[in-house]
Design a protein that fits this description.
Blueprint (H helix, E strand, L loop, with lengths): L2 E7 L2 E8 L6 E7 L7 H12 L3 E5 L16 H13 L2 H16 L4 E10 L1 H12 L4 E5 L18 E6 L7 H11 L5 E6 L16 H19 L1
Parallel strand pairs: 3-4, 3-5, 5-6, 6-7, 7-8
Antiparallel strand pairs: 1-2, 2-4
Helix pairs in contact: 3-4
């Protein structure tokens, strides 16, 4: 069972869900939400990372629009609301809030000092930008949307980045994937994996495009990456 914490910035305060591992201190991982807020899927991922030995935290990045968003992908009305939130979201401010979350969790008595990030969908793009704009020790991006427009930022990478790309992603079409691959495949700090036959959100348990085999493989790669980069 997780707990809630409050993160304070110059613009205001927002909440985050925290799950603690059995042993302490431990490396931290910031879980960066999809477009459905800090919902059960995100809390389960956060709990799962704690079960793997990480101090995990999932911040409410929609707080500037509406605090406490917690919806699912199971109804048309929720999808409509999710896209409204996505369109209203300020990516640059969001990266700043992730940076504030990193600082907050590093100051936690349960943190060993190192901190990574993992993001999905909207959070996948934010994870990429977190890797290029913050002092995160390592980052993982799952099917980030819009990265093709920001590949030049990879020149600022100082720490390792792992990227999972769904080859049949309806939100990241083939030309965008090709651009991402061409721009990033030779960067020594980036590991890129693509998943044939997989659509967007293939790792979202309960989602329409959930692919158990691909989700497990990506999860194994993510865990191995964090073990190698965060200790």
């Amino acid at each position: 069972m997780g707990e809630r914490t409050t993160i304070t910035t110059k613009d205001g305060s927002f909440s985050a869900y925290v799950a603690r591992p059995g042993t302490s201190p431990a490396p931290a991982v910031v879980v960066i939400q999809e477009i459905f807020g800090v919902n059960q899927v995100m809390r389960d991922i956060t709990d799962g990372l704690a079960g793997q030995g990480y101090l995990a935290i999932c911040p409410d990045l929609f707080w500037r629009i509406e605090p406490g968003i917690d919806i699912t992908d199971q109804s048309e009305a929720e999808w409509k609301r999710a896209f409204e939130l996505f369109n209203a979201f300020d990516v640059d401010l969001g990266v700043g809030d992730v940076a504030a979350t990193l600082s907050h969790i590093r100051d936690d008595i349960g943190c060993s000092g190192k901190a990574g990030a993992v993001g999905f969908c909207l959070g996948g793009a934010l994870a990429f930008l977190t890797a290029t704009r913050t002092d995160v020790d390592a980052a993982v991006s799952y099917y980030g949307v819009g990265i093709e427009n920001r590949v030049a930022e990879a020149a600022k990478l100082a720490h390792p980045l792992l990227m999972h790309i769904a080859e049949e992603d309806q939100f990241v079409p083939k030309p965008a994937q090709a651009l991402i691959q061409a721009a990033l495949k030779d960067n020594p700090r980036i590991e890129l994996f693509s998943y044939p036959g997989c659509d967007h959100a293939f790792a979202r348990h309960g989602g329409e495009h959930f692919n158990p085999a691909a989700a497990e493989l990506a999860g194994q790669r993510t865990l191995a990456f964090f073990q190698r980069t965060l200790g």
